[in-house]
Amino acid sequence: MASALSDKLSRLVKEMRGQARITESNVQDMLREVRMALLEADVALPVVRDFIARVKEKALGQDVVGSLKPGQALVGIVNKELAATMGDGQAELNLNVQPPAVILMAGLQGAGKTTTSAKIAKLLKERLKKKVLTVSGDVYRPAAIEQLKTVSAQAGAEWFPSTPDQKPLDIARAALDYAKKHYFDVLIVDTAGRLAIDEVLMEEIKTLHAAINPAETLFVVDAMQGQDAINTAKAFKEALPLTGIVLTKLDGDSRGGAALSVKQITGAPIKFAGVSEKIDGIEIFDAERHAGRILG
Ligand code: GDP
Question: Which one of 86, 88, 127, 260 has the fewest beta carbons within 10 angstroms of its own beta carbon?
Answer without folding.
Answer: 127
